[in-house]
Specification:
Blueprint lengths: L17 H11 L4 H4 L5 E8 L5 E8 L4 E2 L1 E2 L5 E5 L9 E2 L6 E2 L7 H23 L12 E6 L6 E4 L4 E5 L11 H14 L8 H22 L9 E2 L9 E2 L22 H4 L1 H12 L2 E5 L2 E5 L12 H15 L6 H16 L4 H12 L4
Parallel strand pairs: 1-7, 5-8, 8-10
Antiparallel strand pairs: 1-2, 2-3, 4-5, 5-6, 9-10, 11-12, 13-14
Helix pairs in contact: 3-4, 3-5, 4-5, 5-7, 5-8, 7-8, 7-10, 8-9, 9-10
The structure holds calcium ion (CA) (2 copies).
Length: about 375
C-alpha cells in the first residue's frame, strides 16, 4: 500500500531510543579483536543494513573467529537462522566484518538485522519507560529466529522458550520484521509473564490489544527516521489496510466499539476497542495529523475527547496490565484496572483518571 509523505515534528517526547543506543555503543566500543584474540568472546557494536529501519547499530559479540548477533548489553539476546526449516531451533549467523545485511531481503542477514535492532529497541523502551529489565523482567534477553519455514507470513512468541519466530512473509520480500511487528510479539511475552491474559474471549482481545499498544509506543520511542512512529500496525510489512488505532474498523475487520459478541471474534479484530481506547486516551477524538499521518477518531457516544499524551497513556496501560489485570480480565475489568492504575499514578480525582473513564465510555465500555 502507499503511504502519505511524513514529516517529523520537533522531538518533544521524554523517551527516546537514540541515547540508549549511543550509550551502548560507547560502552562496548567497536574494535574488540585485540581483546578477543586470545579466544575470549568480546562485546562489539556492529552495523545493521536493515530493510525497514535504515542503517542502525547492533549489539554483537566477537567469538574470536567471527561476529555473532548476541547482544551482551541487553541480556545476551540472540538472533538466529532457522534455515527455512520448521523444526530447527536456529543456528548463529556468523559474519567477518560486523556489518549485517544489505538493506534488501535478498541478503539473508537483512531480516536478522531488522529483528536484532527492533528487539534491542524494545529492550531499551521497556527499561526507559517502565524500568523493566527485558520482556520477562528477569534481565534475560530473548532468542529470535528468522527465516522460519517457507513463505510463512507471520511471527509468534513462544512462552516455553521465551523466543520469537519470524517467517519470510506470505508476500515475497516482505518479512514480518518491522519495529512494530517485533514489538507486538515481544509484548505477548511481557503479558505472559504478568497479567497472563488468556487467548480466548475478551481476555484474548485484550492480549492482542496490549501487544498493539506496546508495539506502537515502542515504535514512537525508537524515533527511527526510516520507520516513524504512527498509530498503525504492520504498515511497513503487510499489503492492504493495516490495523489502526484511531478508527479500528478501517481495516474492514476490527470493531471500533465494545459489543456483547466481541469475545467471540478473532482476538485481533476483538482488540479494536482496546486500541481505540488507547488512541483516544493519548491523542483525543476527531481529525488530526501526527508526524504526517492523518487520523480521525470517532466516539460511540459522540463525546469530544482531549488526550493526555502517549507517555501517560502507556504508563497507565502498563501499570494496569502488570498489577490489576489477570488471566480472565474482560473489557469491563480492563476499565476498572486502568482506572485503578490512573488513580495510583495521578490520584483518584486527577484529570488523567477522569479521561480514562471518558475514553472507555467512548468505546462503549461502561
Ligand atoms: Ca511506522
Ligand atoms: Ca506502526
Amino acid at each position: 500500500m502507499s503511504h502519505p509523505h511524513r514529516t517529523r515534528r520537533p522531538a518533544t517526547r521524554v523517551l527516546t531510543a537514540t541515547a540508549a543506543l549511543l550509550a551502548a555503543a560507547a560502552l562496548t566500543g567497536t574494535a574488540p579483536q585485540a581483546t578477543a584474540a586470545a579466544g575470549a568472546a568480546a562485546p562489539a557494536t556492529g552495523t545493521g543494513l536493515t530493510q525497514y529501519s535504515g542503517t542502525v547499530p547492533l549489539g554483537t559479540t566477537y567469538t574470536g573467529t567471527s561476529y555473532q548477533l548476541t547482544d551482551p548489553s541487553r541480556g545476551g539476546q540472540r538472533t538466529l537462522d532457522a534455515l527455512n526449516q520448521t523444526g530447527n531451533p536456529g543456528v548463529p549467523f556468523n559474519d567477518a566484518d560486523n556489518t549485517w545485511g544489505d538493506g534488501t531481503p535478498a541478503h539473508r542477514q537483512t531480516a536478522a538485522a531488522d529483528v536484532h535492532y527492533a528487539t534491542a529497541v524494545t529492550w531499551d523502551f521497556y527499561k526507559a519507560a517502565f524500568n523493566r529489565n527485558g520482556v520477562r523482567g528477569d534481565g534475560v534477553g530473548t532468542t529470535s529466529r528468522v527465516h522460519y519455514g517457507n513463505g510463512f507470513g507471520n511471527a509468534y512468541w513462544s512462552d516455553s522458550c521465551a523466543c520469537v519466530t519470524y517467517g519470510d512473509g506470505s508476500t515475497p520480500g516482505r518479512p514480518p520484521t518491522s519495529l512494530d511487528v517485533v514489538g507486538h510479539e515481544l509484548a505477548h511475552g511481557l503479558t505472559a509473564s504478568t497479567a497472563r491474559l488468556g487467548y480466548t474471549g475478551e481476555a484474548g482481545a485484550l492480549n492482542e490489544g496490549t501487544s498493539d499498544i506496546l508495539a506502537t509506543a515502542g515504535e514512537f520511542f525508537a524515533e527511527n527516521k526510516a520507520d516513524p512512529g504512527d498509530y498503525l500496525l504492520g504498515e511497513r510489512v503487510f499489503d492492504g489496510p493495516p490495523r489502526r488505532m484511531d478508527r479500528p474498523s478501517a481495516d474492514g475487520v476490527s470493531r471500533d466499539y465494545w459489543s456483547p459478541d466481541i469475545g467471540g471474534l478473532d482476538p485481533h479484530a476483538g482488540s479494536g476497542p482496546a486500541r481505540h481506547f488507547y488512541y483516544l486516551l493519548a491523542e483525543g477524538s476527531g481529525p488530526r495529523v501526527i508526524d504526517g499521518v492523518a487520523y480521525d477518531s470517532p466516539t460511540h457516544d459522540g463525546s469530544k475527547l482531549l488526550g493526555i499524551g502517549r507517555d501517560k497513556a502507556t504508563r497507565i496501560w502498563y501499570r494496569a496490565l502488570t498489577l490489576h489485570m489477570r488471566s480472565t480480565t474482560n473489557y469491563a475489568g480492563a476499565r476498572t484496572a486502568t482506572l485503578r492504575a490512573a488513580a495510583d499514578l495521578y490520584g483518584p480525582s486527577a484529570p488523567e483518571t477522569a479521561r480514562v473513564a471518558a475514553a472507555w465510555t467512548a468505546v462503549n465500555v461502561r
